Sequence to fold (192 residues):
Amino acid sequence: QYDNLKYAAGMKCKSIGFLNKFSPGLPLYNKIEVIISALSKKLSEAIVFAVLIDGNRIPVVTCNNDNVIKVDCRSLEQKSIYSLVTGRILTAFANQNNLKLIKEKWGFPGEKWDNINTDLELSKALKYIQEKGFAENIEGNSLYSIAVPAVGEHGEIASIGCYAPLFRCGDQKRIKILNELKKTATDIKNYF
Fold:
């Protein structure tokens, strides 16, 4: 950004352009909202589609379900990028420039993720997620969360996550959620 508040072509400009593609009312946002809403209904759980912009996890579409007991994803938004599985996915699949921004903004995860406090520990955790192709977490014996990446053809990174009460997520349901997330990620990445 120049002193006159105008942007030159570069990473910041690219990030703004990428985020603008997901503005409510635009065709891409509308398509993704329909897909995420359908997935939420199919799984009867909360689903979040988030993107990585300048080292930050930006939730673009959030769909809750109609269950009496449900996860309010808005309550999760103020957490560290490392606390949420969608943020861990975005970090694991970030390019080197974005990973540097994440570390500058958020530091090391520490208590927010397995007491990771060094570059070596963080690299191992990110590599583990990359190899598995998903991140999952159980928080406080009550919240189960799982997320997968959706990587665009030009390296744009997004994540799709499911947040659900743990008591509804036995082994079979977890497998179903993971398979549906992967299928949805494949469908969505073709749009951006």
